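User: Hi! I have a protein structure encoded as tokens and I'd like to know what sequence might fold into it. I'm fairly new to this, so please keep things simple.
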């Protein structure tokens, strides 16, 4: 009878094989868990990068809104935010023929996430972009006084009429002293660069100002006050309605919009900023002083009739001085970036 072959030693290879299989299974499980953890971290970092990029974009536009300075083409800024930083670049997408009109920008923000506990290398990046327009302020500084309606003037004894287009703030070039159509009288001897221009149709004069009076009449502009606040120095926005607005002994600042006729009475009327009048202005105060600019007769631009400004009364001293600083403060809310709707881009490609 043949003796059976010995089976001693077969358990060891089986045990090694079993341990190898279990080890591979455990390793695969650990690797899978690590991959899933990294995927989750990467997804979270990607969301963080989006937040960093968006925050940088908003801070860049807020920065220029606060400085009121239009950025040059290719202007860039690094914005440090919690969790990383954003590199923001603004490129001009459209340049208007008239530099006073809105400029179109594409503003790109590259958000980078940095986590010190995971090393110095960036953990994620995200690029977003926003189309936006830059508005200069809404009113072109054509002259210390622009008369879209007519202005009547008659020299009187003991009466001064001074209209000066030289900048009282000394930071901007001189503008015209007086601008009107060919139907107006010349009030006194305006000074500036040039001192005056009385020619062209009223529509040409209006077009130079860039004022959308129809939008103001339709209520598109929100006022801070609908009645005058004497002595206020905050450069607020006033929109005052009525067939005729009478102001007596007033001192104020800001953007004063009179939807119809403006009459000034008392010993003194003094205003720093911008005055827009729908109909005519009749400065019957003993002394009228405006440091900024004045535009009258805007109702004519919406098809309404207007009366003449009355610069022909005895003992009514009128001093109108162009002041770019007061104009800028009065129009500060109209200068800066305005987002273009439905024009935000995520994962902006770079080449």
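Assistant: Happy to help. Inverse folding works backwards from shape to sequence: for each of the 351 positions I chose a residue that suits the local structure. Here it is:
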């Amino acid at each position: 009878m043949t003796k059976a072959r010995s089976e001693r030693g077969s358990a060891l290879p089986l045990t090694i094989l079993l341990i190898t299989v279990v080890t591979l299974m455990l390793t695969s499980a650990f690797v899978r868990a690590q991959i899933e953890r990294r995927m989750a971290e990467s997804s979270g970092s990607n969301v963080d990068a989006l937040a960093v990029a968006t925050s940088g974009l908003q801070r860049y536009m807020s920065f220029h809104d606060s400085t009121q300075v239009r950025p040059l083409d290719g202007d860039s800024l690094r914005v440090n935010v919690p969790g990383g930083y954003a590199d923001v670049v603004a490129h001009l997408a459209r340049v208007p023929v008239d530099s006073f009109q809105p400029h179109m920008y594409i503003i790109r923000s590259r958000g980078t996430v940095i986590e010190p506990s995971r090393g110095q290398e960036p953990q994620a990046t995200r690029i977003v972009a926003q189309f936006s327009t830059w508005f200069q302020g809404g009113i072109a500084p054509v002259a210390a006084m622009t008369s879209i309606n007519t202005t009547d003037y008659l020299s009187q004894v003991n009466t001064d009429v001074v209209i000066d287009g030289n900048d009282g703030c000394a930071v901007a070039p001189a503008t015209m002293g007086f601008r009107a159509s060919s139907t107006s009288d010349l009030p006194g001897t305006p000074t500036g660069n040039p001192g005056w221009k009385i020619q062209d149709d009223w529509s040409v004069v209006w077009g130079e100002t860039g004022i959308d009076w129809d939008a103001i009449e339709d209520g598109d502009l929100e006022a801070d006050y609908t009645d005058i606040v004497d002595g206020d120095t905050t450069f607020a926005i006033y929109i005052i309605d009525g067939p005729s607005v009478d102001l007596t002994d007033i001192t104020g600042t800001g953007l004063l919009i009179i939807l119809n006729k403006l009459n000034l009475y008392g010993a003194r009327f003094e205003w720093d900023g911008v005055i827009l009048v729908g109909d005519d202005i009749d400065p019957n105060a003993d002394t009228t002083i405006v440091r900024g600019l004045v535009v009258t007769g805007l109702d004519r631009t919406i098809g309404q009739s207007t009366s003449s400004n009355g610069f022909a009364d005895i003992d009514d001293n009128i001093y109108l001085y162009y002041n770019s600083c007061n104009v800028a403060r009065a129009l500060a809310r109209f200068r800066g970036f305005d987002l273009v709707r439905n024009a935000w881009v995520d994962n902006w490609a770079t080449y």
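A useful reference point when you look it over: The chain has a mean pLDDT of 87. Feel free to ask if any position seems puzzling.
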